[in-house]
Amino acid sequence: MRIGIFGAGYVGLVTGTCFADLGHDVVVRDIIPARIAALRAGKVPIFEPGLTELIAANRDRLTFTTEIAEVVAGADVLFVCVGTPPTYSGDADLSAVWTVVDELPRDGRRVVLVMKSTVPVGTGAKVRSALDERGLTNVGYVSNPEFLAEGSALKDFRNPDRIVIGSYEAADAEVVERLHAGITAPIVRADVASAEMVKLASNAALAVRISFINEIANVCELTGADVLTVAEGVGLDHRLGKHFLRAGIGFGGSCFPKDISALKQLAGNVGYHFQLLAAVIEVNELQKRRVIGKLQKHLGTVRDRRIALLGLAFKPNTDDMREAPSLVLGARLLAEGAEVRAWDPVADASRLLHGAVFCDSVLEAVDGADAAVIVTEWEELRGMLTPELHARMRTPLIIDGRNLLDPAAARAAGFTYEGIGRA
Ligand code: UDX
User: Fold this and answer.
1) 273 bridge partner residues
2) Which of 46, 60, 169, 365 has the fewest CB atoms within 10 Å, counting from its CB?
3) Angle CA 90–91–94, to nearest 5
4) All CATH 3.40.50.720 domain ranges in the chain, comma separated
5) Going by CATH, does the domain composed of 256-418 fall within 3.40.50.10540?
6) Which atom of ligand 1 is nearest to the CA of 324?
7) What percent of the chain has pLDDT over 70?
8) Which residue among 18, 81, 220, 255 is the active-site one?
9) Ligand 1 pocket test target in 196, 256, 318 with most atoms within 8 Å of CB
10) What pLDDT score was predicted for residue 90?
């Protein structure tokens, strides 16, 4: 089939490239000329393992353009993969989605408009009405939310847990189902509102688990239990499962914080106070700041202390800094008068964390430091317990915000070590 993609961001590029890899002809459109020019030159503007290679391998079936006419021409299916960032009120900003709907030309041919972007429940109904008002009854509408996690997006696309297809017309859902031929996964056929809610509810459920295990970790610290052992024991219950029970310094990223706030706001807009999500958000905010208390416990004060932040991206294998806990932690430390030295192998936070010193290596970051905080569990940090690193620090204190290191090994190497929720 011929597929048009609106948005050459994270979701649009991964979706477009993977559909091209399945054998479809794909045109990806973005409004930023520099982004399209870079993609045409083989330069991929995001960091996602394997994506550059997969784009190169599918060059013949992938076109990048800024022109609306080019993306719509001859397309059987049009995917909306534009950003839906939060507004000041916590609602989702749907202006990019509306621009796509408004720009669709009237050519009378049957085409299916598929919403991949995460949108509030009820958006599909509004888009359907807007299309009908414009006389675009030839345009079908399907909600097909994405469940791609950064760092494993290609794998997630090829081996999804499920494919959710919400539609008004069964024929439109069938078109989208056929597009996925070659991928083995349960298909959930739904009405549009339920499909929209599956996405929001899935992210909310995962965030609940993270805030839950973080609170368990905090109680473990006060009671002498070890959260890793607790999570293992809890996770072996088949009704619960082992995933998303890693305690740490809170969740971040482009999806969880935004989607949870959007779901809470959506509920509020229709008169329901989503108390559980309010707590999940509060726990997450407090969790990002708990490291400060741990540093104060060991150092007395963080004022004029040199603190190394190791890892800045919201999680490993991405350069994404959106809602990264490192930003809150770094800003708090700077506000307390600490000297912050920061390192990340790929993420650039120089314009987000004013006042921090950015270093090219872990050793440079810990030079003369009173403490090193593991903020993102990059693989390269696993081997950091070296005599050389120990010697470079003023105080050999490690606060492991991701429980990456073995506490016994850290202490054996001469470090004062504290993780999250560990005895
Ligand atoms: C997430 C969803 O997984 C994906 O399905 C959705 O489409 C987009 O949002 P992503 O934001 O890429 O994907 O990252 P994910 O791996 O889910 O991690 C989200 C955050 O939770 C990260 O900050 C991570 O560090 C944190 N996390 C995750 C924990 O703190 N503990 C865990 O056990 C798991």
Assistant:
1) none
2) 60
3) 140
4) 2-191, 256-418
5) no
6) 23
7) 100
8) 255
9) 256
10) 81
Question: Per residue in 375-387, pLDDT tens?
Answer: 999 999 999 999 9
199 lines ligand 1 (CB under 6 A): no
Mean pLDDT, to the nearest integer, of 314-336?
95
Please work out whether the CB of residue 256 comes within 6 Å of at least one atom of ligand 1.
yes
pLDDT in tens, 243-302: 999 999 999 998 999 999 999 999 999 999 999 999 999 999 999 999 999 999 999 999
Within 8 A by CB and 6+ apart from 267, the residues are 273, 274, 277
Torsion angle, alpha carbons of 243, 214, 300, 382, to 10: 0
Catalytic annotation on 255? yes
**Total-model pTM:** 0.94
Q: What residues contact residue 337 under an 8 Å CB cut-off, 6+ apart?
A: 302, 303, 304
* Residue 124 near ligand 1, beta carbon < 6 Å: no
Which tokens is 334 given? 């700077």
Provide the strand spans (E) within 134-271: 139-143, 163-167, 187-190
Domain 2-191 has CATH 3.40.50.720: yes
Ligand 1 centroid to Cα of residue 288, in Å, is 15
Cβ–Cβ < 8 Å for 382, 264:
no
Nearest residue to 263 via CA among 99, 123, 66: 123
CA distances from 77 to 97, 382, 409 (A): 16, 45, 54
